[in-house]
Amino acid sequence: MIALMLALLAPAQEIKSDDVVTVLEKRCEKVSQKTAASVVAIRVEREPEAGKKPVERKPPRRNPFAGPPPEPEDLFAKRPADFWCSGTIIDADGLVATTAFNVSGKVKTITVRLPDGRELEGKVLGLNATDDLALLKIDAKELPVLVPARVEDLHAGNPVIAVGRAPDGKGLTLNPGIVSAVSRLGGRGVQTDAKLNFGNVGGPLVDGEGRLIAITCKVDTKPGISSTRGQNSGVGYAVTHEELKKILPDLKSGKVVLESRRPFLGIEADQKSALASGVALAAVRPGGSAERAGIKGGDIIIEMDGMKITYFDELRAAILRKAPGDRIKVKVMREEKELEFDCELGWAPEE
Amino acid sequence: MHAIAFILMLAAPAVAQEPEARLQKRIEDCSKRISERFVFFLGGSGVFISEDGYCLTNHHVAGTQNQTKVTLFSGKQLMAKLICTDSVGDLSLFKVQGAEGDKFAFVDLGDSDKLEVGQYVVACGNPFGITLPAEDNRMYPTITLGIVSALHRYQGEYFDCIQTDAAVNPGNSGGPLVTLDGKLVGINGRIATRYMNRVNSGVGYAIPSIQIKAFLPDMMKGGEGGKAFHGMMTGLSLEMGPPGTGARVLGVRADSASDKAGLRKGDLVTEVNGYRIFNRERFLGVTGMYPVGTEIALKVQRADEKLELKGRLEKYNRMEIAGLSLPQRPERTRPKGAGFLGTTIEEAKEGVKVTFVTSGSPADDADLKEGDLLTKLNGKKIADRDDFLSRIWQRKPGDKVKLTVARDGKEIEVEVVLAKHPDD
Amino acid sequence: MKHAAAVSLLVFALAARLHAQEDPDKVHVRVYKKVAPATCYVEGGRNRGSGVIIDKSGIVLTSPTACGTNTDVVNILVKGGKSYTGRVMGRVNEHELVLVKIDAKDPFPFVELGDSDAAHVGQISYVFGDCFDSLRNDDQPAMSMGVLSGIYEVTKRQPGTFYTGKVLETSAAVNPNQDGGPLVDREGRLLGIVTLNYDDSKFTGLAVPVNVLKPGIAQIKREFENPAAKVVPKPAPRVDPPAKGRSAEVWFGAEVRAVNGGLELTRIARKGPAFHAGLQRGDVLTTLDSSRMLTEAALQKAIAGKSPGDAVAVTVLRDGEKKELRVTLGSKPIY
């Protein structure tokens, strides 16, 4: 009897598991070890604007952390002039991914600092402002590359970590968070509440095992009341490695898309329509993709690429999942008749 | 007997699942479940609280519409009718008009009073309106994870709110804040911001479920013509100050709710409905989270006595809280040309207390600060606010006055030269 | 009888095993209970911020940005509605270190000093403090959670800060008036003190590592207990090295408003250059070094070309009379 009780109590000591905090800390340690070798620091020197002084970010007149809010100033819309940002090694033969924003402007030289301390010159091969990704080439071989994660296995709530390099170019930075939504940016990115900022975008977003999910990007720098103006808001985006793979050939071949471009159909929905299902069109944009295909104002869009369209946002989302130049089939109702049109999507710059 | 022991022994290792793995699973399950119960309002968020389609959101999201279109997690668009709205507490109750027999997934209300600072919470919402139908036509809201940073925060008309560092932004308003068991402990509605940037900086405020529970029964019935009203102890002037042992009564207006409750000048209110009261803000916070007409129990210290009083809340009146119609104080107007000091003052136990110093004024030049107690003017005791104001206004710009100031437990004398009022 | 006892023992053992597993939802509550009682709201001079008690006898560690660069008396608020006054024991402003002794005999809850040299990126960290008046109004030392997201050097000082050097960066939310407050590890040991300094790339919370503060803390404590042991301090290192050949920021010491014919002085900084020159509020500045002063920009441009110590000739109108004065420009003070 007593022997049985002891036997019961004994496993309590053996199957001792790590407490939550230890696991969280160990996860960061593991991610640090597995990813450090593939995360680089990037420093960009830019030409001064022709005829103007170099664009120095104006320091705030008073510390914005200290008490009441300062006067409204263009505090954060500009990236700081003098710091190291982040990049991810994506090919052993010296290909580095970073954000298009990091290497935008009149770039003079790019210095890439490898984790082993070597500083090499980086050359921009290609750039895509829509995805906010850029591809750099450095003269190095046999570089370590991250193992990709299975994006389709992701769920909201999964732990992720945004890895980057410190502003002095040396240490690693880790910002843990969760997956806030698995499919954003027209299916090309994931959303996370891990803190993203000028310093760490361009680095990898990894899972608890250090596997690459996406490249962090899109720190909002637009002016305006709903802009984060460079400050982290808890709404962060990262473009998946699958999307990066798709645009890689274009980037390698030197394709440069300087402006973010959204696929564009060129229609104006009738806001006053009381339709139960379908999108009634008030008009089509002259010269736009819809007009060229033969769609007219008054038509009701009921299907796109075989998918039933009930309301406007469904149509908008479906278009945003495409790319400029893609062909789509649009079915409309016109005077009780169903008509189908073949459209080639144009593009509209992001406002 | 031995068999039972044997079975127990086999079962035992199964319960020793790694706690972090359990936590992870809870976070994922919670995220999934709350998404299914989420309601997309135009420009904001909401959540189902009953199977037949009642849902909550903020008043500032949709409370001025009698009906509005909402989108569900499934992607379905339906109309929602306003049942009742609380414009002060920022809470609106809608009912989604589904087809006959439609059943909606909903959340249970939790107990916000049982929350602990440090506890995990999940916020679900649609910040910046970024959600669009996914390939499966579903509308996936944004999930963010954080902890409870503070409880019982008084933020004006967010009387008793939960502070969290889970990221919430414009667009999250009206959405649910849940504990990991999926129970609703708050409705997100406000954020504190820095740098004048309207984005999250780690401080979100949520209306607590304890307040929602107090209002729901009446709101379900439509309230008063579709409106719900908060209560307050009218006719009460309380001393302002940092948290201490209670809220000190400076004045009670005749025939007000406070008068009927038996409160008197000099009383120290220490408890209301079991909540410890430590200053004016907490008193306003506790009394403000109930509907008009609620009876409250007060514990009061009067001289050496400990009293228990009962009060009935009258209709919440914004102007009174702001002190624009202070009890027992007729408004006085400054005579044109009178001397200007540059302080805003409040009644205090002794003399008057400085609540604000105008930048660039004589008071500012003399280094008077918020919190200073002015006890004497030119050596003579300041009786009350009226006395202080009339004596300042008797003087002209350029006149010197000596103020006796109590600050940090010390008494100092400050000489001020009155100036011309900026308006003159 | 023996069987019943055995069964109940078995059940007990099982229950004990289940109970030993913590509630994962509340793993961080433990640190709150440890550190919140030692977290302070701090106020001194015109400044306010946060602080933390580091000794049972009531020694508060805080920052000059929270309680002033040369104040002697500091007001302190602690959870539970307790207010105290404290006297500054000593300070090392360039480390953003101020020690305050609370004037009271209660034994105080306190945090232990940790070892910031052993800190590593990725370890759990929490920030406590007065967050948007949480402690000052609502008796709530707010807590935020994150990790040490980076350890690096900052060489630039944001306005209103004093410290440069190694910093601990945290992903836990840090907000106005939490400067001076504690950054702690998983056991509630002090890793650093929150600073107002931040790196331009991030705007995130930084903390001065506790190991940077330890020598100062030890010295101040020693001198406080034994004033005879006070070491004559070496002259403080220059905190304001001119960057890129620019001189330290030049200061006139008045706020102005454009009016008909000149600039009205709406505010004179106490003990500032304009004050010392005899300028008064209400004076209308018409010329500076013979240049007409009609806009604020004109004044700023005229001053920008000068250095601290330079004198300028100003003409002002006071009650209709023209007055000519000389203003010796100063250096812009941090506080």
End-to-end Cα distance of chain C:
80 Å
> Largest sheet of chain C at a glance?
6 strands, antiparallel, barrel
Radius of gyration of chain A: 25 Å
Do you know the CATH topology of the largest domain in chain A? Answer: Thrombin, subunit H
Based on secondary structure, the structural category of chain C is: alpha+beta
Question: How confident is the prediction overall: mean pLDDT of chain C?
Answer: 86
Low-pLDDT windows of residues of chain C: 238-247
Query: So what's the overall shape of chain A?
Result: globular
What oligomeric assembly is this protein in?
A: heterotrimer
CATH class of the largest domain in chain C: Mainly Beta
Straight-line N-to-C gap of chain A = 77 Å
Radius of gyration of chain C over all CA atoms, rounded: 26 Å
Beta-strand residue percentage of chain C: 35-45%
How would you characterize this protein structure?
The complex is a heterotrimer of chains A (351), B (424) and C (335). Chain A has 351 residues and is an alpha+beta fold. Chain A has 2 domains: 19-46 and 76-258, Beta Barrel (Thrombin, subunit H), CATH 2.40.10.120; 261-349, PDZ domain (Pdz3 Domain), CATH 2.30.42.10. In chain A, 16% of the residues lie in helices and 34% in strands. Chain A is built from 5 helices and 22 strands. In chain A, the strands form 4 sheets. An 8-stranded mixed β-sheet of chain A has the order 5-4-1-2-3-7-6-14. A 6-stranded antiparallel β-barrel of chain A has the order 8-9-10-13-12-11. Chain B has a 6-stranded antiparallel beta barrel with strand order 1-2-3-6-5-4. In chain B, strands 7-8-9-12-11-10 form a 6-stranded antiparallel β-barrel. Chain B has helices at 2-15, 19-36, 59-62, 209-220, 257-261, 280-288, 318-321, 362-365, 385-393, and strands spanning 38-41, 44-48, 54-57, 67-72, 77-86, 91-97, 120-125, 142-155, 158-164, 176-179, 184-191, 204-208, 231-232, 236-238, 247-252, 268-272, 275-276, 295-302, 305-312, 314-315, 339-340, 343-347, 352-357, 373-377, 380-381, 400-407, 410-417, 419-420. Chain C has 335 residues and is of the alpha+beta class. In chain C, the strands form 4 sheets. Chain C has a 6-stranded antiparallel beta barrel with strand order 1-2-3-6-5-4. Chain C has a 6-stranded antiparallel β-barrel with strand order 7-8-9-12-11-10. In chain C, strand 2 (47-55) and strand 3 (59-62) form a beta hairpin. Chain C is elongated. In chain C, 50% of the residues are buried. Chains A and B meet through helix 1, helix 2, strand 9 and helix 5 of A and helix 1, helix 2 and strand 8 of B.
